[in-house]
Amino acid sequence: MAEFILEIGTEEMPARFVPKLAAELKETFGKLLDEAMVEAAEVRTFATPRRITAQVVAIAEAQRQEEETVTGPPTRIAYDADGNLTKAGAGFAKTQGVAEADLFKMDTGKGEYLAAKKVVGGGKTADILPELCLKAVESLSFPKRMHWGGYDFTFGRPVRWLLALLDDAVVEFTVENMTSGRETRGHRVMGPGPFAVASSADYFSVIENDCKVVIDPEERKKTIVAEGDRLAKELGGEIVWNDGLLDEVANLVEYPKPLIGDIDELYLELPREVLLTSMQSHQKSFGVQGPDGKLMAHFLTTLNLEPTDVALVKKGWERVLKARLEDARFFWEADCEVEFQTWLDKLENVVFLGPLGSVGDKARRIETLCSKLAGMLGESKSILPGEIAEYAEAGRLAKADLVSEMVIEFDSLQGKMGGIYAARKDKGDIVSQGIYEQYLPAGPDTPVPSSLSGALVSMADKADTMAGCFGLGKKPTGANDPYALRRCALGIARIIMEHDLDVDLEVFLKNAQAAYSKDIKWKVEQGESLSNLMEFFGQRLRALFTGQGFDTLAVDAALGAGFNDIRTLKARLEALADFTREADFEQAVLTFKRAANIIRKQGDEAGQVLTGGYTKELFEGEAETAFGTRLEEMGPRFDDLWQAGDFAGLMGLLRELRPSVDAFFDNVMVMCDDQEVRLNRLNLLKALVDKLGRLADFSALQV
């Protein structure tokens, strides 16, 4: 076995490209080796801003050999009447490189065909690798490719060198004007090179010692964290780590060198969010906080070299950050002198979305929705009547900070600054928290608002956007979702479930539609728009639960019973999923599906109105009486369990009932000649199906 190294050297790549390219090269090269029948150990990849490297520690020196059977023309065409090869048969033998004596007839199931066995593979890996390397380089994808020089080849950034070694031999391939060799380049300042690599075994040693490059991104991260923690500890504090920023910083450097910088203590009067945003977004630096959790007058940045004059470099970083903090301080002081009403007035001139009016209009609609939501949830969430106005005010002020100086400059602080300003102006926790958390959840992996007011403002904001967009016919199609409506629907669903909100989804969406002005010219009639919204929510909930590992049929069955009450949907689905794993599940489904099918065919499809009301006096026989009695006895227990949200108990109740239903089907003719008795029996089954239908659509389950 040999060792293989491929290195693609480039101009500095954006940090977001780096990990993706490493993962892509690993997958692509492994797949190419497999397709080429070259046996190899796992492909390992490493990436820095200036290089992408693939390493195969053990790679076979020759292709694997395999014998395969190749079929040719049908034998009736391959041979003439005298049994001699025709032109078609001889051509097949020539194409496959086999003698006539090695041909044979083979029955393929579709007829008899001429066939030959041939051995494939066996080529030298060194001869195959050039083509694989070229394919691997060409297959790497980028959000946007670029040309350089006068060449036709495109890549994410200009390619400056190619290194490809199979042990000590160069694997020669050419990309545009560049041919691979054994030379690599190092850190631009600390070891620019070029350096010749004698063999693949020497590569990592040359990269570390001569090139001064830490090629493993995990090693770069460990260095930043370890050194950052050490430096912060010396100051009596700790680093405010941000995982996303740490990944980005590790992919911005080839030789990480953490450095502590200082800021003037007067900037500590700024909100923590503003300070961290200034450090993280613009300077890719981390804050330092003390044992009390308050930020200290320091920051941690990461250099890409060992400076000869640390003090000078430190001063440069501090000067740049100071400029950002000075701007932030100016915006903070300016905003603190402005009243919310001034911002609300400005919102009247900010367009929300074409025909849907201004952001001021949207704020009023959110205010209305928050008020209604707080009213609906008053009893279940212990909202006092006097607090409803505060929830409404949170909605009214939710968008005010969009025209503040701070958010215009630091748009990632929208919502947060509004909440901070509201708290500073003594608006109370309900208002300030509602504004602060209104944009949560921002995605599937971000938390929902922690406060109830944040949850209500977020739901109102998202529902308003959805109702408006669906009314204008801007329903997402395919991958096109410019208004993030899928994220809105999932956000609402997650908030309802995680906050255990007793909200009727359809009523809530109707309220969102009703909050719009009557003057808006909708492109989709509001009834149809509501239907589309409900269908959209059903699709998103299906995607949410199947993504969490629930069986698709169980999800469909749970959704089929309705999802107006999203709060209990997941509990109902979990109980149903548990039920599907029980030994008697299949028999239970068959029984209940039989009842549902009879009601569907003899009720809706036959035009027969069934109410679920039955008369015990019309029961005939022990089985029918027993079923009716059991169903009646079950009623109060079913309602109690439903009220308590005990869906596992409800499934157990169905299990108790099933023997009576089976006995009924075994001993009673439902479609008897007596019309009155027949109708009574159908209504008896209808009463059963109505209860089942609240739990799940059993017809969606397949056994």
Automatic annotation (TrEMBL):
Pfam families: DALR_1 (PF05746), tRNA_synt_2f (PF02092)
Main subcellular localisation: cytoplasm
Subcellular location: Cytoplasm
PROSITE patterns linked to this entry: AA_TRNA_LIGASE_II_GLYAB (PS50861)
Annotated EC: 6.1.1.14
Domain DALR anticodon binding: 591-688
GO MF annotation: an example: glycine-tRNA ligase activity
InterPro entries assigned: DALR_anticod-bd, Gly-tRNA-synth_bsu, Gly-tRNA-synth_heterodimer
Keywords: Aminoacyl-tRNA synthetase, ATP-binding, Cytoplasm, Ligase, Nucleotide-binding, Protein biosynthesis
Any one GO cellular component localisation term in the record: cytosol
Gene Ontology annotations of biological process type: arginyl-tRNA aminoacylation; glycyl-tRNA aminoacylation
Reaction equation(s) it catalyzes: tRNA(Gly) + glycine + ATP = glycyl-tRNA(Gly) + AMP + diphosphate
Subunit structure: Tetramer of two alpha and two beta subunits.
Family assignment from sequence similarity: Belongs to the class-II aminoacyl-tRNA synthetase family.
Classification via HAMAP family: Gly_tRNA_synth_beta
Protein name: Glycine--tRNA ligase beta subunit
Organism listed in the record: Pseudodesulfovibrio cashew
Organism phylogeny: Bacteria, Pseudomonadati, Thermodesulfobacteriota, Desulfovibrionia, Desulfovibrionales
